Amino acid sequence: MQIHGIPALVGTYDNYIWVLSKGKDAWVVDPGESQQVLDFLKENQLQLRAILVTHRHFDHVDGIAAIKNAYPDATVFGPEKTPVAIIEKRLKEGDRVQLNPDYYLNVLDTPGHTEDHISFYNQRDLFCGDTIFTAGCGRILGGTVEEFADSLLKLRDLPDDLNIYCGHEYTIDNLKFAQLVEEQNPDLQQRVEEVQINYPSILSTPQSTLGLEKKTNPFLRFDVASVADQLRELGADDTPAELFKALRNWKDRYDRAN
Ligand SMILES: [Zn+2]
């Protein structure tokens, strides 16, 4: 299975639309726009089999209608709890989507960014929408801090070698905040140096693994001593929800000031 990142809403939201392809078949994840997806499918003579959606936000779903119009046989999969009407097959944790005989995706409920958010994963890949970003995480826009903390910990339990395919390209800004949180983390320092050499942007599709995120993403480390100690100073108690909330609030203040 090949996975290709197509930039969308460049310069505003900097989304990734992910296209999976094998032979002449293709599947698309979170099409917030349509034209570049349709162009890609046509240029590569691909037949779209399905559209998969992680959550209800417009920058992940607004391209569906036009794509479905061009490929009426493609099935639209999305969260069970979503208000998005165009979803045909509704998914919840424990479900599995078999894309072809060799490639399936398991469904995890990962609410917190929104109340309806799901993620897809198998033994190689993780499509986590706006739950985990490279070196960061989504904002709370409908879910609760408790849900979000649980979802991050749930994803953290998956294997280190999973490739991460997230909804947006915010690596550079996220790494700046991560350094503020964990100045002394050697893995983070190394990641920052590598990023400075191999500058990621929405047009260059950087790769990350869950293992790298576990070592360097503060939002997968809010209960690790070097991060948690600072969050306690900000008033958090030791529950995952309180620690996550203090970190998310810190990042929101940082974003407003920068
Ligand atoms: Zn979103």
TrEMBL record:
Cofactor(s), by name: Zn(2+)
Keyword Nucleotidyltransferase (UniProt): no
Chain residues that bind Zn(2+) 1: H55, H57, H113, D130
Cited Gene3D superfamilies: Ribonuclease Z/Hydroxyacylglutathione hydrolase-like
Keywords on record: Hydrolase, Metal-binding, Zinc
Catalytically driven reaction(s): an S-(2-hydroxyacyl)glutathione + H2O = a 2-hydroxy carboxylate + glutathione + H(+)
Pathway: Secondary metabolite metabolism; methylglyoxal degradation; (R)-lactate from methylglyoxal: step 2/2
Enzyme Commission number(s): 3.1.2.6
UniProt remark on cofactor binding: Binds 2 Zn(2+) ions per subunit.
InterPro entries tied to this protein: Clx_II_MBL (IPR035680), Glyoxalase_II_hydrolase (IPR050110), HAGH_C (IPR032282), Hydroxyacylglutathione_Hdrlase (IPR017782), Metallo-B-lactamas (IPR001279), RibonucZ/Hydroxyglut_hydro (IPR036866)
Residues the entry annotates as binding Zn(2+) 2: D59, H60, D130, H168
A matching Pfam family: HAGH_C
The Metallo-beta-lactamase domain, residue ranges: 14-168
GO MF terms held by the record: hydroxyacylglutathione hydrolase activity
Assembly and interaction partners: Monomer.
Similarity comment text for this entry: Belongs to the metallo-beta-lactamase superfamily. Glyoxalase II family.
Protein role: Thiolesterase that catalyzes the hydrolysis of S-D-lactoyl-glutathione to form glutathione and D-lactic acid.
HAMAP family for this protein: Glyoxalase_2
Protein name: Hydroxyacylglutathione hydrolase
Organism: Thiomicrorhabdus heinhorstiae
